[in-house]
Amino acid sequence: RDPALYRELTERIRDADVDVVLNLTAGMGGDMVFGPPSAPLPLRPATDMVSAEERLVHIEDCLPEICTLDCGTMNFAEADYVMTNTPGMLTAMGARMEELGVKPEIEAFDTGHLWYAKQLVKDGVLSSPALVQLCMGVPWGAPNDLNTFMAMVNNVPGDWHWSAFSIGRDQMAYVAAAVLAGGHVRVGLEDNLWLAKGELATNEALVTRAAGIITAMGGNIMGPDAVRAKLGLTKRAPK
Fold first, then answer.
1. Phi and psi of 140, rounded to 5°?
2. Strand 194-196 with 199-200, pairing
3. What's the average model confidence in pLDDT over 206-210?
4. Most C-beta atoms within 10 A of its C-beta, which of 82, 101, 115, 239?
5. Check: CATH 3.30.420.100 for 3-231?
6. Torsion angle of the four alpha carbons 26, 30, 36, 41, in this order, in degrees rounded to the nearest 10
């Protein structure tokens, strides 16, 4: 969570010749790692729980166009690790993102996360139309079967913008599924390390393959200015 590293990274991106929409994570700072079931407390040293303000220090400093808002708490793969995002924490973080003029990308790992995201909009914490990412296949959130996926899709308000992904070998299948369901897509090394069996991927290769799937299905690839116009984003540089 070193803000200096985020600042260095974003300055390099902004100084590059290629224009991109800048989207930074705000998901760290909510990790609780318990001891074994027989002795859950004290929390293990890997615990990383900080205030809502500290979770957004790098967002305030770098002023990206988008940042993530993990919209709920869940058991996250490992036996004693809980990704913690309480309603109070989400309200405080979401309100601050809106104040900064940074578009929250709601990360919905399960149906209840999407339910609460709609409540945040109803309460006036987040503006509408919101931007939501449907996160499929992450243990132990929403499984990546198509019935669950379409249940998530059908619960996204009609005027919201949404994209979706799944992890590992299902990454490219969900590129096609998201396009077919009327959404946008996400790919990258965070979700999948392999381009093919035994062939390590790069982000460039994953994006190229996803773009091929999208265009083959009759979709279009939007450039950064078109994305900014569609999502109402403001490109800024920090002081």
1. -120, 65
2. antiparallel
3. 97
4. 82
5. no
6. 160
